Amino acid sequence: MLDPSLHNHIAEMMTKSLKPDQIDELGCLLMNHYCSHTILGLDSHITVPTRKAATAFIQECEQKGYEERLLKLLIEIDGNQLLGKTVNLEGIEEMRNMMLYSGLVYDEKKRKIRKLREDPSELSNWGALKQGKRYDMTIASVDIVGNSAIVKKHGIKKAEKLYFRFWAFLRKVLEDYDGRIWNWAGDGGILAFTFKGHQQRAVMFALEVQSLIGVFNASPDKPVNEIIRLRIGLDTGKIKFADETGQIVSETINYAAHLEKNGTDPGSISVSDELIGSLPKSLRALFKGNGVFEERKTWKYKGALQ
């Protein structure tokens, strides 16, 4: 049986993206002979609602133990022809991401569903994003303030130990917001968020990291007695995904990095106007206007996080 949340997501996705006759065609591809009217006990002249057809099809797959076949079929039919029309499944990436937490992943090379051996949080594409396809994403650029001074004062080895400890701390918080580390260079890097609510999750992650860095600084087993302060800059937009995430060229990534480095105070958070406009009122209220940076209006966190 599919996880209930995955079951519901697939039903919703099929309802939005397919017609009842296309759902029947999917059934035929999996089971040779399939008819929604027969499954539902309806006369052939009665119109079957799309949601009802989708739910019946999913339930039939579950009863036959075809769950993995269903997932594979949906992934492979996306972007291809079905009954003379190109199928664009709205929500297919989210479905693939949800599969990870059921312990399943689609192997692109072998074209099969397999058990997930990796930690889902280690997959920079969430097990779902496709090479060369553009996605709505939010980027956070994070940097430790005064890295050069820390290295000069304590030496590279102790600084590296400190940064590794910070990286582990950061990852733990990041997991709660389903973000990914795309590029990291010891004292900072680029973090990515996607799927539904990515803008809100990215900002809440930044707020939590900045509020918890004091706890990290108070840890008695830190490699060096040094107060860590952070700058975080965020932007949102369309990004063309590549498996080598450190090589992705994107205005959104560049802007977040520039905003963090040149437009953010130590210990604070800056966000673009596009990002602030996508947030719920409760989060927007935490920020105030911060002028124009690189010809775009920006916002900064009102309070003192550190």
From TrEMBL:
<protein>
    <submittedName>
        <fullName>Adenylate/guanylate cyclase</fullName>
    </submittedName>
</protein>
<dbReference type="GO" id="GO:0035556">
    <property type="term" value="P:intracellular signal transduction"/>
</dbReference>
<dbReference type="GO" id="GO:0009190">
    <property type="term" value="P:cyclic nucleotide biosynthetic process"/>
</dbReference>
<dbReference type="InterPro" id="IPR029787">
    <property type="entry name" value="Nucleotide_cyclase"/>
</dbReference>
<dbReference type="GO" id="GO:0004016">
    <property type="term" value="F:adenylate cyclase activity"/>
</dbReference>
<feature type="domain" description="Guanylate cyclase">
    <location>
        <begin position="138"/>
        <end position="260"/>
    </location>
</feature>
<dbReference type="InterPro" id="IPR001054">
    <property type="entry name" value="A/G_cyclase"/>
</dbReference>
